[in-house]
Amino acid sequence: MSESNHDPRFVHLSDAHIGHRQYGVKKRRDDMYMSFNTSVYEAVEESEVDFAVFGGDLFHNKNVNARALSDAEEGLSRFEDADVPVVAVRGNHDANLYKEDLNWLEYLHSRGKLILLEADLSGEEAAFEKHDFDDPGTSSGYVDLDGVRVFGLQYLGQRTSDSLSDVADAIEKVNEEEGEPEATILIGHFGVEGHIPGMGGGISFNALEPVEEVVDYLALGHLHKKYSHGNWVFNPGSLEAHDTRQAQWELGYFIVDVEDGEISSEFHESKRRPFFQINFEVDAHDSPDELESAFAEEVEEHLSDLEKVQRKPHFQRSGEKRDPVIDLRLEGLLQFNRSRLDTDSLREIVEEKTGALYVNLNDATESKETASIIQELDGGEDAVRNEQGQIDRGKLESAVFQRLAGQDSQYGEKEEDVADTLSVVKKSVLADENPESVAETIKKRRRDLFDQGGDQE
């Protein structure tokens, strides 16, 4: 156990998602690196932490490319240069739930860039192996740093809840054998229920009770929202927002002090790119020109609110504003044929007026023709709407094709198969497939459905 002549201080951060090229935009990939690297800089240079704990999802993709690995190593090297050990666990984005090969966190552990912790759950009882700085292997179970003992629990998905009692027993066993530390930390990659409305699957407070008996600080990752519970459960959220909803949340990292076994934490917001949402109702506009004119005016009206969103913590370290990501949602009943709705023109209006890095357009409008068809379908609107209440274009197309097929008696009870064939043919035509290939697909499907033989046309 390393010794310190002052009370230990650590930074708790999580969910950097390095390598996430959101929307295919290069600058969004750069944002993931910048928010991570800036947070590391602030923790080291401004807060002067003694060590760091990371709650998982360092990377966004399991197949890490060279650029993402380089970005991660640069941030970790800043910790290394300041002699600040980094202790981490595996998140669901970092590696497969069931191990198949050496993952990138194990690679970083073996090179001394971080200390990867995980519980050994292979036997009848859970166990934690002490970290050996001279022979680290590919992972460890726990590590002692500045009088604080840190344990790690890797991402287990639905198995997490069933494992917590055994994990608590294993922690207690280590502390009994090795002596009680000044404070005990458990890092885990899972969410606690009740902190994000409408999101299920979190761990219940009852399941956490065994852990509470033996842990002073539960350092979580996974949910991209900052929350805490009972002055012992802490989740800092992601370092970058990954959609407009997340952009409304506090996101960042905790600076935590341990004094005489007592925990005190201070939250710091990370510097990240702003998101902004524009909703536009199309109902009142009778022509495309009228719609575009009204749309441009409405975007103008949003600029003052956008200005507020672009303030801190969204500034770059230079103090300059970052161009926003705009979520544009079109809603309502179109008063003209859908083919005349120029969404590219609407995107250009937003980009010109807001300087947006990217405009993510969600077209949730319905045309009069669509509304009429929906009312005539079996099941009405419920048959073609998704869980968010939006028209599912795939379901609508399938329902229309099936209805058309059902009107022809020669198809008997095979209208679903005929509808599927029509959908396949449509996709083939839109993909500019060879007409002869499309015709052959139709012939084969018809033979399979009606057993008419190979010579039928």
UniProtKB/TrEMBL annotation:
Transmembrane segments: none
Keywords: Exonuclease, Hydrolase, Nuclease
Keyword Hydrolase among UniProt keywords: yes
Keyword field contains Hydrolase: yes
Calcineurin-like phosphoesterase domain mapped to chain residues: 9-225
One GO MF term: exonuclease activity
Domain of life of the native organism: Archaea
CDD domains in the record: MPP_Mre11_N
InterPro entries attached to this UniProt entry: Calcineurin-like_PHP, DNA_Repair-Maintenance_Comp, Metallo-depent_PP-like, Mre11_N
Pfam family, one: Metallophos
Annotated protein name in UniProt: Metallophosphoesterase
